[in-house]
TrEMBL record:
Coiled-coil boundaries: none
Domain Nitrile hydratase beta subunit-like N-terminal: 23-106
Source organism of this protein record: Undibacter mobilis
Annotated region (Disordered), positions in chain: 1-27
Official protein name in the record: Nitrile hydratase accessory protein
Classification lineage: Bacteria, Pseudomonadati, Pseudomonadota, Alphaproteobacteria, Hyphomicrobiales
């Protein structure tokens, strides 16, 4: 399970007002959303980007999705979060777009071969399918 530092989460929700939250802090519908949130917190804490950079990139990704037909009901918020995360990781040189693409396809392969209800495990073979 993903562990999120409550103080870091509070700072993030103060800086990025669009984060879905309740009285206790950020809320997530799926485990991957919490993991994406935690990755953004970790990269911010390491100085990869500032919260204003993050908010601008996230806003841009949301606008891009809306222009492409996203109804902006809130259901796709963390898809935009993930797109912003991938974009900043590539722009800041943490990982190339090619590397991100390679891992995305490897995870898709791992997902396809995993029986429903079982944990998805990424293996070296998923990179060479």
């Amino acid at each position: 399970m993903t562990s999120i530092d409550p103080a870091a989460a509070r700072r993030a929700t103060e800086e990025v007002p669009s984060i879905p939250r309740d009285g206790d802090g950020p809320v997530f519908k799926e485990p991957w959303q919490a993991q994406a949130f935690a990755m953004a917190l970790a990269l911010h804490e390491r100085g990869v980007f500032t919260w204003p950079e993050w908010a601008a990139t996230l806003s841009d990704e949301i606008k891009r999705a809306q222009a492409a037909g996203d109804p902006d009901t809130g259901e796709t918020y963390y898809m935009h979060w993930l797109a912003a995360l991938e974009r900043l990781v590539a722009e800041k040189g943490v990982a190339s777009r090619d590397t991100l693409h390679e891992y995305r396809h490897a995870w898709e392969h791992a997902c396809d071969r995993t029986p429903h209800g079982k944990p998805i495990e990424l293996t070296p073979a998923d990179f060479h399918h």
